[in-house]
Amino acid sequence: MSLEDRVRTEVLGMLRPKHGGDVWGRLEVKDFSSNVNPLGPPERLNEYIVEAARDMINYPDDRCKELKEAISQRYGLPAANIVVGAGSAELIRLFPEVFVRPGDKVIMPRPTFSEYGFACQLMGAKFMDVPLPEDDGFYPEISTLIDAMSPGTKAIYVCNPNNPTARMLTRKEVMEVVKEAARRDIMVFLDETLLELSERERDVTCVGEVAANDNMFIIRSFTKSFAMPGLRVGYGFGSKDVVRYMDAARLSWNLGTIEQRVATKLMINEQEHVRSAVRLLLDEKQRMRDGISHILKRRIPLPDSYFFFHPLRSLGVTSPKFKDMMLNHNVLVRDCSSFGPPGQSYSRFCVKTRESDDEFLEAMKATVEELHSGR
Ligand SMILES: Cc1ncc(COP(=O)(O)O)c(C=O)c1O
Questions:
Q1: Atom in ligand 1 nearest the alpha carbon of residue 89
Q2: Alpha carbon of 105 to those of 108, 118, 148, 358: distances in Å?
Q3: Alpha-carbon torsion 295, 296, 301, 305, what sign?
Q4: Residues 244 and 278 in one domain
Q5: How many Å lie between the centroid of ligand 1 and the Cα of residue 143?
Q6: Domain end: 216, 239, 270, which one?
Q7: Which of 224, 233, 266, 334 to mutate to test ligand 1, by most ligand atoms within 8 A of the CB atom?
Q8: Same structural domain for residues 158 and 116?
Q9: Parallel, antiparallel, or unpaired for β 187-191 and 126-131?
Q10: Tens place of pLDDT for every residue, the chain, 375 residues?
């Protein structure tokens, strides 16, 4: 028997999901490819890390009690509704491990964040892809999502706002999906990690709905709000029953002591840092839109989130080529080809601080000029 015969069918031919943020070792490059807090981490992050690192001799608290209490305080939900993970990525993996059996159908609006598909593929799910309508600026039609629900469907994925399209549904729209899914025994996986830095967060979040709806699970993360992808801390909300099963199946000691203690401090002490970023992004998003519109000599639409999913067809350039050209000006944008069609014709880049955004606009202006002059 060859090794291939012994490997699970789902794993054969599996490819690692692609992500932005590949700036390692290139300090001169400004990273616009990953959507994190433009202010960077709070000033006291290092202090928190050093303090937490004093106690490495003991195993971490497997229940993550203090961190869950801090999250509970911030969101006004009992700790029994909260599960924590090594990044929300761990919870993305855990969800199908708990709920998806081989052959179950999962509804996947596309393009969207690749980790959902990766985790579902591993569990042997069948994909029901729902292409997001490009002509309508990628706003999902709620009726289309509901129409995709058919016998054998186990889960539907909703990323709000969606990565990479930057489109946001209202709470009413998301709950319409949740209610209809409940009638058909379908789980809703809702990713709110990109909502935390939005000025509409309070109006749009569905966290307050989880206790009463046991067919939904919501993820959040420290990565974006506190600009710390290097420390892996995410969390999720569900009904007590949903959380009980998720918690039963998760990896033991999934969060190290440093992660737990630092995240607890951030949740309690550093909310103002997140609020400052929200205010900054709101202004900068408009300025960036105006700047890009000026360069392209046409008005471009404002994204619902703090990153742009920008069409490249009129510039006659592909996503990887645009990335390379921008890199020549020390700006990293996200090559969107890995999101599948029509990602090849789009670039994703985030909004940062005024100074960085000016550098971005300079790089974009130079790149567009090069494209126009055929260089
Ligand atoms: C939409 C979305 N959800 C979840 C994640 C995972 O983030 P983390 O594991 O750092 O919490 C990402 C990371 O890029 C993302 O873009």
A1: 9
A2: 10, 14, 10, 45
A3: negative
A4: no
A5: 27
A6: 270
A7: 224
A8: yes
A9: unpaired
A10: 899 999 999 999 888 888 876 766 677 899 999 899 999 999 999 999 999 999 899 999 999 999 999 999 999 999 999 999 999 999 999 999 999 999 999 999 999 999 999 999 999 999 999 999 999 899 999 999 999 999 999 999 999 999 999 999 999 999 999 999 999 999 999 999 999 999 999 999 999 999 999 999 999 999 999 999 999 999 999 999 999 999 999 999 999 999 999 999 999 999 999 999 999 999 999 999 999 999 999 999 999 999 999 999 999 999 999 999 999 999 999 999 999 999 999 999 999 999 999 999 999 999 999 999 876
First to last CA, the chain: 55
89 Cβ inside 6 Å of ligand 1: yes
Q: Determine whether the shortest distance from the Cβ of 193 to ligand 1 is under 6 A.
A: yes
Residues 9, 50, single domain; the answer is no
Residue 324: domain span: 3-41+272-372
Q: Which atom of ligand 1 is found nearest the CA of 191?
A: 3
Q: Is 333 exposed, middle or buried (0-12, 13-18, 19+ CB in 10 A)?
A: buried
Which atom number of ligand 1 is nearest to the Cα of residue 193?
3
3-state secondary structure 4-69: HHHCCCCCCCCCCCCCCCCCCCCCCCEECCCCCCCCCCCCCHHHHHHHHCCCCCCCCCCCCHHHHH
